[in-house]
Design brief:
With about 240 residues, the protein is an alpha+beta fold. The chain is built from 8 helices and 8 strands. Helix 1 packs across helix 3 and helix 2 packs across helix 3.
C-alpha cells in the first residue's frame, strides 16, 4: 500500500472502483469483514471505516445479520421497476412476505378494460402482506392475465417475490407503471389486515403495469397497495430506459 495514502483509503478506493466498474453488481453482497481483513492485511477497524464511509456516500447499504450490499448504480436506478421487496431491501431492512389469497377466476369489468382482456378471460388474483424487519408495512392485491403466466399457481409467494418470478421464469420485460397515489386512512378491513390497533395515515397506490410483449407494449398487471409510511418510505421511479 502506498506510503502517502492511509490503508482505509486504499480499501475504499478499490471497493469504489469495483462498484463503478460493475465488477460488484447492484444488490451484490460484499466480501465479509474477515475476508477483507485477510485480503488487505489490516484490522477490522480499518475495513469498517472504509465500508462505513461508502455507506454514508450511498454506495453501499447494510442488512443486519446479512452483510453489506452494493446500492443500485444511478443509471440502473432509472432503468428498473422496483418491487416492494426491493424497496424494503433498499432501506436496509430485512424483507418478508405472507401470501393471503390466491385464485384463478374471470376478470371483473374494470380489470378487463385495464388489462385489455375479454370479459370471459381469466385472471390470477394474488394478495400479499409485505414485512420490513418483521413489521407489516404494506398489503398489495395484484391481478394478472392468466394466459400470460401459465402455471403461476405453482409458485409459493410466501417465499417468492412476484416480480422476481415474472422476470426470471417468464422473462418479462417491464417497461413502465402508471400509478394513482393518494393519502388515505383506509377502511376497517385494511386497517385490520395491516394489524393496526388505531387508524394511521396510509399511502394508497392504484396502478397498471406494462411490459414489452412481441415488440408491443401491453398491460400485464393491475394492483392496489396500502403502505404504512412510518415503516416504509416510497420513492417514485418507474420508467425504464429502453
Amino acid at each position: 500500500m502506498g506510503n502517502n495514502v492511509s490503508k482505509y483509503e486504499v480499501i475504499k478506493r478499490e471497493l469504489l472502483q469495483k462498484i463503478e466498474s460493475m465488477e460488484y453488481k447492484s444488490n451484490q453482497v460484499l466480501p465479509s469483514e474477515s475476508e477483507l481483513c485477510e485480503k488487505y492485511q489490516v484490522s477490522r477497524i480499518t475495513v469498517r471505516r472504509a465500508v462505513d464511509e461508502l455507506v454514508k456516500e450511498n454506495k453501499l447499504y447494510k442488512i443486519k445479520g446479512k452483510g453489506c450490499f452494493v446500492r443500485e448504480h444511478s443509471v440502473e436506478n432509472l432503468s428498473r421497476i422496483h418491487s416492494f421487496t426491493e424497496a424494503i431491501v433498499h432501506e436496509g431492512k430485512k424483507p418478508g412476505r405472507e401470501q393471503l389469497y390466491f385464485s384463478r377466476e374471470k376478470a371483473g369489468e374494470e380489470e378487463s378494460k385495464l388489462l385489455e382482456l375479454a370479459p370471459e378471460d381469466e385472471v390470477y388474483r394474488l394478495r400479499c402482506l409485505y414485512l420490513a424487519d418483521e413489521n407489516v408495512c404494506c398489503v398489495n392485491a395484484a391481478v394478472l392475465p392468466a394466459a400470460m403466466f401459465p402455471k403461476l399457481e405453482a409458485f409459493n409467494f410466501n417465499v417468492c417475490s412476484l416480480y422476481d418470478v415474472l422476470k426470471s421464469f417468464y422473462a418479462l420485460n417491464i417497461s413502465r407503471v402508471k400509478q394513482n397515489i393518494i393519502a388515505t386512512m383506509g377502511d376497517e378491513e385494511i386497517q385490520k389486515t395491516l394489524g393496526l390497533k388505531e387508524a394511521k395515515p396510509l399511502l394508497k397506490i392504484h396502478a397498471t403495469s406494462y411490459c414489452l410483449h412481441e415488440n408491443q407494449e401491453k398491460p400485464f398487471e393491475v394492483y392496489e397497495s396500502y403502505i404504512l409510511t412510518d415503516i416504509l418510505s416510497y420513492t417514485v421511479e418507474k420508467y425504464n430506459i429502453m
